[in-house]
Write a structure and sequence with these properties.
The structure holds two protein chains of two kinds. Chain A has helices at residues 2-26, 32-46, 97-105, 109-116, 120-133; strands at residues 49-56, 62-69, 72-78, 81-86, 89-95, 138-143, 146-154, 159-165, 171-177, 182-189. By secondary structure, chain A is α+β, with helices and mostly antiparallel strands. The longest helix of chain A has 25 residues, at 2-26. The two termini of chain B are 39 Å apart. By secondary structure, chain B is an alpha/beta fold. Chain B is globular.
Chain lengths: 195, 737
Amino acid sequence: VTRILVRALLGTAVAFVAAFGFLQFGLARPSSGDRFAARMVAVLAKTHGKRAEITFGSGEPIAVHCTGRRHAVSAVQTAAGEIVASGVHIVVVRESAARVVEALKVPDLAAAELDLAGSHAVYTRELGSTLERKSIIVRQGRYAGRAAYVIVLRPARPRVEIVVSARTLRPVAARYRSADLVARSKLGLEGRGGC
Amino acid sequence: VRFALVGGLGYGVNLAVYGGLTRFAGVDYALAATAAFTVAVVNNYLWNRTWTFRVFRGSPLGQGTRFLVVSLAGLAVDLVVLRLLVRSGVAATPAQAVAVVVAMPVTFLGSKLWSFRPEPTFTAEPVYVIPPDLTSPRAVVCLPTYDERENLEPMIRALLSVLGPRDVVLVVDDDSPDGTGELADAIALRSPSVGVMHRTGKSGLGRAYLDAFRYALDIGAELVVQMDCDFSHDPNDVPRLINAAADADLVVGSRYVAGGRADGLTAARRVLSRGGCAYARLVLGAPVRDLTGGFKCHRRASIERIDLDRISSSGYGFQIETSFRELEQGARVAEIPIHFRERAEGASKMTGAIAFEALLKVLQLRVESVAARLARYGWIVRWWALSRGIVFVSVLAVQALRWPRPSWYPPIMSRPLALLGAWDGRWYSIVANRGYLVVPGRQSDTAFFPFYAVVLRLLHDCGLSYLAAGVLIGNLSFLVALAALYELTSSWTDGPTARRTVVYTALFPFGFVFSMVYPEAVVLAAVALAGVFAVRNRWTACAVALICATLARPEGVFFALPVAAVALSRWQSLDRRDRGRALAAFAAGPAALAAILVYLREVVGDPLAFERAQREWGRWSSPNGIVRAVHELWLAVSDGREWLYRDAAFCLIYLGCLTLALRAGVPKSWLVAGALIVLLPLWSGTFTSDARFGLLALPVYCGIAYLARRPWLDRIMRVGSGALLAAGSATILVHWP
């Protein structure tokens, strides 16, 4: 009986080791960027963005603020109008005449404003969907003299990057680049409200 | 056409080996390419020998070398044509297509006319025979000799002292230069129980035995004993072999069962012998521990059942080949322990070429066996093709119509059958691509078990898209599952019910899942194979199948139960080793599950990440889960979740079929496993996907087959099932399976 049990235990141990080895060598491991992005999603889910200063090209900074809204991921209010995003749909709610002219010249203006407004909900959605399709690229760098990470939210054009503080992992800046538009924003940190 | 198909198979093998070596073993690409080419050439050689050209005669070594030369020549022609075409401006891919077409006739003609040229038919005409005086003996002990002058007389004397009055000794001499033949003649003239067969020159142990077997059958022997003349086999063991043949068709004197020994072997010979036995046993799946041993006793009927003309081994591969062919024909085998001693006098005949021949012979036998089995499973292949045809046509039709969500579909020409990769298929592709990653607050991929993702990744590394890899794995696994299911149900019930079980599994309305990028087909194949292996006492293979099943779906672990039941029912007839193995097979599934937990702990820091991910997918187990599930069903219409009725209806159908399966004779342990698969998910608070989970409850299909035992009902049910399968396939995108 002892011999039979010893054989059985050895066989079970071999089965365990074989199964574990199969997983260890067979399955891919997420990249460090992916793991970092997963941590970022957790941070973004607990925090909100509210204020931002958006600069298109070499123009003057535009102040915008972002609010959460029922049934919508975020609403971005600028001096020129209001943008509401829900899922993959972006709706421009109010327009000034100057903005209509601008929007005709640059079709992805609304998308750029949304990406630069600092909405953590939008970043979570984009980071999450990119994470499901491909590995996230994360670079180390500095922003305003402090250690920071640059996360590529959307690698293909329009390319969107957010800069996050290395200390708090909260977004401090965003960059947008498409065929028609190059823009960046500086994000304000807010404790309450926002989106 | 066969030659081209084998070429295509070889291409696949080449890519698989190359991908596996570079990706998983980290082997240098040039070395991997060489290994892949070698494996592919061996693969093509075996298939061409046994299937395309069917040339069973001739030395595998010579044939294989000629085939290698022809393959290299074909490769050279291919490269030359490719280079010329590319230089003249043709794109690389079409150029390669043309080059392959040009090179193929070269390799085909080379193979047909040279590599596999017909060998002169072996005629087993010995020069002359001095017959023993006895006719219709009980046993003929065959002693093949070549330069055995020192051993012959003591051996015959020892044999005659232990044999009975109706037993004879037949010396088969290959024209030994040392005069063994003449000595044998002199002994035969003195002794009426000794005969001598003289053959023309040294033409191999196998051919000597074949001549002896034919002669023994001709003179009406009941038993044929084969042994070496060099005292490595103890003549005193012969009566034990003969006595054991009362209850067996083939008795093997074994060095490797309890009580057996092998003395005097050098370390190299010992490794060669042990390794050769393990290799042959593993590849052929034969339940004999000493397959290479040459001390055997065959019953007349067992030899008559095999076609001696098909036996082509001339060296030591002969021992493996005869045992395997007898086992294939259903011979009952017994192994009795012997004490093997390396020869004291004379020189061993073992050479590197003989060992290589045996190595190739084992592979060839396996390929032949698989080919023969495939031919026997032709009807299963037809039902599989029909059912999968229904699924593919339905899926392509809705893709062409872009129904019900036009924006979902990619163009049919760029990604045909995209529908089969929907829902969980996307998640398995993510796991295959990136491994596990828990994203807080979102639905995570740790809810998906890893085995299928690993196989997807392996094929993806060989150049297939995840969709193509998934569809390929699913559908091929389903074919294997059908064949295994047939073998398994044949051991439970009568032949017609087993056949109907296969038909209804193929046509099962929810069976479109088996063609999707889902692991269900892999699990079905693994658990059916585990059952077949358990029934055949192949516990190690059973354990491997259960590990695969459990790594692919959590339900796999339930099948430890029927495996344990099979082991318990045979406990008394199992030897000590097999008892240990059977227990290990029982524990293999839980061990694999434990391995997943440890892996998750290491990778995502949470051994219960699977359970936590399930919560994000809306499932969590609790004692009142079934109450929550029924409550959810009650509110289904008001919540807009009418599809729950589909899953609930299938749940009831599965339970009904399990009841019928009991009447069909399915063992209770399998029914319990099936019931657990159907019912346990309900404790997670929902009926969602229970229709899919229940697909793995094997006895369900037996129950349907039992229900359809009247021919008129059978016909109606087949048509109805096929129609529902088409409808189910067409509605994949309407709601997840």
